[in-house]
Amino acid sequence: MIDGKTVGLIIPARNEAASLPKVLSSIPVEIDRIVVVDNGSTDGTALTARRYGAQVITEPIAGYGRACLAGLAALADSSPDLVAFVDADGSDDLSCLPPLLMILVHGQADLVLSWRRPVEPGALSPQQRWGNFLVTWLIGIIWRHQYHDLGPMRALSWQALTALGMTDRDFGWTVEMQIRALKRGLRVIEVPVPYRARTMGRSKISRTLRGTLLAGSKMLRVIVREAFGK
Fold first, then answer.
1. SS (H, E, C) 62-87
2. How far apart are CA 86 and CA 216, in angstroms?
3. pLDDT digits (tens, 9 = 90+) for 18-59
4. What one-character-per-residue DSSP string does the chain give?
5. Domains of the chain, CATH where assigned
6. Which of 44, 54, 65, 155 reaches 20 to 30 Å from 223, CA-CA?
7. What pLDDT, in 10s, does the model give residues 12-27?
């Protein structure tokens, strides 16, 4: 709990058993409920998460958005005041999460996003940098708001989250959230935070050509859908 507000944390994880111990050990005490969504892992991710005291939800069909939606469904029984999302690979600096949450507590924003400032070589791949630039540039052209990043660490109120009506089940989740926040008139703040190279292993998306192409095409489809759909 932070200044009287309950906080739920969702951590999508697919084959992150090696990195989860460090991530779960560094979660701030302000977090009331930790939900790790095992997104079709084959390496004991769920067992590791339970060992460190997290609630584990299983979403067997791979997809970042699917994992986030499953985590939200798990939190719905308690409806925490604030909801945060972080990655399971150890690249997010979780000591920065309480300051992000305090921005919400003080009523300065409805959605707070991490603006990744790499502190280690290779923390962001060239394709990630290019993809971030392209997507945020397109959002700026269409919705007249210049984002700096699509950072995975983010926090928002439960009320704001409900207003967004999130639906994307794949790589377009972060883009959909940031676009819909603008369309719904939410107040958005980006906060520069340190960003590290993942703790162990290799990214399933950003470090592979196939994963990069799939993620990029999905994000572009989300932009088109949000711009020209209902």
1. CCHHHHHHHHHHHHCCCCCCEEEECC
2. 20
3. 999 999 999 999 999 999 999 999 999 999 999 999 999 999
4. -BTTB-EEEEEEESS-TTTHHHHHHT--TT--EEEEEE-S-SSSHHHHHHHTT-EEEE--S--HHHHHHHHHHHHTTT--SEEEE--SSS-B-GGGHHHHHHHHHTTS-SEEEEEEEE-STTSS-HHHHHHHHHHHHHHHHHHS-------S-EEEEHHHHHHHT----STTHHHHHHHHHHHTT--EEEEEEEE---SSS--SSTTSHHHHHHHHHHHHHHHHHHHH--
5. 7-228 (3.90.550.10)
6. 155
7. 999 999 999 999 999 9
Count other Cβ atoms within 10 Å, centred on residue 4: 7
Length of the chain: 230
What are the pLDDT digits (tens) for 64-85? 999 999 999 999 999 999 999 9
Instruction: Find tokens 């060239």 and name the residue.
Output: 126
> What is the C-alpha separation between 179 and 12, in angstroms, rounded?
21
